Amino acid sequence: MTLTQAPSPDIPVNDKDLLVVRDLRKYYPITRGFFRKVVGNVKAVDGVNFTIPAGKTLGLVGESGCGKTTTSRLILRAFDPTDGDILFQDRKLGWVNIPQLDDVQLRQLRRNMQMIFQDPYSSLNPRMTLLDIVGEPLLVNGVAHGQELRDRVAELLKVVGLRSEYLGRYPHAFSGGQRQRIGIARALALQPQLVVCDEPVSALDVSIQAQTLNLLSDLQEQFQLTYLFVAHDLSVVEYISDRVAVMYVGKLAELADTEELYFSPLHPYTEALLSAVPKPNPRLRSKRIVLQGEVADPSNPPSGCYFHPRCRYAIDRCRIEAPALREVKPNHLVSCHRADELQLQGVPE
Amino acid sequence: MDGNANVTSTQGVPTVSDNRPDSGAPLLEVRDLKTHFPLDEGTVRAVDGVSFTIRRGHTLGIVGESGCGKSVTAQSILRIVPPPGRIVSGEIIYHRRHPTKNGHGSNGHGGEELIDLTKLDPRGREIRDIRGNEIAYIFQEPMASLSPVHTIGHQIIETIVLHQHVSREQARKRAIEVLGHVGMVKPSETIDRYAHQLSGGQRQRAVIALALSCQPSLLIADEPTTALDVTTEAQILDLMRSLQQEFGMAIQFITHNLGVIAEMADEVVVMYLGRQVEQASVDDLFFNPHHPYTRALLRSIPKLGQKTRDRLESIRGMVPDPFSVPKGCAFHTRCPMYLPGVCDDPDWLEVGPSHWVRCNRAMEPVS
Predict the structure, then answer these.
(1) What's the rounded Cα separation, in Å, for the pair B232 and B252?
(2) Within a domain: A286
(3) A222 within domain boundaries
(4) Alpha carbon distance B345, B322 (integer Å)
(5) Can you give the residue range of the structural domain that contains A344?
(6) How many cross-chain Cβ pairs, A to B, lie less than 8 Å apart?
(7) What is the pLDDT of residues B53-108, one digit of tens each?
(8) Does residue B26 have a pLDDT over 80?
(9) How far apart are CA A31 and CA B135, in angstroms?
(10) How confident is the model at residue B232 (pLDDT cuts 50, 70, 90)?
(11) Is the Cβ pair B261, A280 closer than 8 Å?
């Protein structure tokens, strides 16, 4: 089978990258009346651009409804995007553009892209044993069966820190942290290149979060995994990510290397987010920026910059003209008209 | 933990509404409370000997992981422990102020009556008079604690009419007032909305309005911001603090999030498997923790601005099954300082001024 969908020749791609997302859009139409006339769009994802180099982690943060989960599902093509390119450097197939693949090609590609889910209780079938759960991807793709399958699953369980004797047990016998490990073992079964982690630790207890994050970073090293790490907890994202993208109402507000973003943010929204996180230090109380109002409605966003009604630094221009994502410093992209002049606060050192 | 020299905000034990003459007087004393759940598989000792005092106008934080008994403690206070759970021993002494003519709650200046809440019939008149009126409860999930088929206003008005002797018109006026207090935009319109028409932050504001509608002297907030986004969380925490200043109520703040505890509490109780392992002022807890569990918890959370990608220190193992709580110190199976013979029956030791620890090795240098 050959793949003809090479990326458009005018867009150069870097072979060190694994994933290139270009101008990705997903609109959900709002219909009204008997004829279901389209009267508007919910712009869930509205022109998102980023790249993830192989073996690195991109953190995607934002508040609920900002489009971070939609973006991650679009990459796995759980939904079809409205527009945009998702270029993926497959181990065997080379560069492919995910939205253009047909079902057969997708199936082959999906072996290299896996997902770890948020809720370890609802993401495991209670009627399947660990052997069935972790072995299913191997079986479905014809990788292994019989004794070999058992051996492979036992090996995978060991990799994520579970005992191989647990093969015949059901998920109910395990705690939340252990279940999340089962989910991770399932995601790793086919040795994927890209793993999309959607809030993988937010349902876990504090002491278990640390174990799981450590496991994820060990596995990344061991198997050269590339992560897209979607989360709302900024301290967790900081720990795991090389680069961080901040989303607000379907658009990227800021994209920079982790340390740069946390210590010298250039977007007022990033500044406010960092400031709002409750810090485990009672002496830092009441030094926070509390944003007024609520996240804009993506079906009826404000004019100009979507963030301007809540922004302390908004000027007239922000109300009229939507800022484009631009590179203000090397490798530091931000969509704010005033990024060059503002002196924003990062994390207090 | 240095570099705080330039911080001008509250240092040491934060002071809340000290302008009130009665601030700091005991409001609720929990003494050796035990709440157990007899199940077919065995008895779960969800709360197993917990004692603390909540003071007027102050905030007590209760922190712990799931299954540590923090919510059951709060449910025991309000006598809403779900069956088959029941309080098997202990006292919960509520210092009740007699209502004065201008209403209930902390504004009254009558004599104090001591009521042991554990002795009351959970369905009786007396506790129903206290519950939702003098002691209010905010649940974690705002959507689940509001009725989907009644308007916000209906629910607040019902609470007010039930507890205070006012007409429906007056109650409606009060409801609009209290919605305004919690920062609801256009309270006179929101009052006729249903829960599903509000955003997550607005719903939690509505729940807070409902809890505050009778001006309680104690507000129990059980993970009130866990389901919210960070910027909304910051708004709600700010709101709760300013309302506390305004009304002088005490807050029992239950959460698993140490950041939120640092933000809100005056005093903190750390729980592990149904028992208190440490109790201290918020400053002592974060800067001078003594129990190995508290220390490990503080080290294991990823902190903003850590600048390193070293491994996080994690607590080994997991919280034991509630049916087989380890003997002796419940934490000993996971404790780096465990010594056989020493840790069999840890005492509740005072290691500093109002700083208590349940660990026999608490005074030894950290290994």
Answers:
(1) 20
(2) yes
(3) no
(4) 19
(5) 264-349
(6) 158
(7) 999 999 999 999 888 899 999 999 999 999 999 999 999 999 998 665 444 444 44
(8) yes
(9) 47
(10) confident
(11) yes
